[in-house]
Amino acid sequence: MHHHRAEHWVVVAGTAKVTIDGDIKLLGENESIYIPLGRRIAWKTRGKFRSI
């Protein structure tokens, strides 16, 4: 859980599955997501290559 900051993540390569408080989003290259302060998050790489 993010207690001290909000974050903005951008996938620059690969794909990712992001879960924010149970809401699942699939992201690809050049897509981004905002993580508000106080949310539970999980980030998983999808596919053969890792996401960065």
UniProtKB/TrEMBL annotation:
Give every Mannose-6-phosphate isomerase type II C-terminal domain span.
Answer: 1-48
Keywords per UniProt: Nucleotidyltransferase, Transferase
Tell me which Gene Ontology terms the entry assigns under biological process: GDP-mannose biosynthetic process; polysaccharide metabolic process
The record ties this protein, via Gene3D superfamilies, to: Jelly Rolls
The UniProt record lists the keyword Cell cycle: no
Extract the Pfam families matched here.
MannoseP_isomer (PF01050)
In the Enzyme Commission scheme, what number(s) does this protein have? 2.7.7.13, 2.7.7.22
Q: Which GO terms describe its molecular function?
A: mannose-1-phosphate guanylyltransferase (GDP) activity; mannose-1-phosphate guanylyltransferase (GTP) activity
What InterPro entries has UniProt attached to this entry? Man6P_isomerase-2_C, Mannose-6P_isomerase_type2, RmlC-like_jellyroll, RmlC_Cupin_sf
Q: What name goes with this protein? A: Mannose-1-phosphate guanylyltransferase
Q: Which organism is it from?
A: Escherichia coli
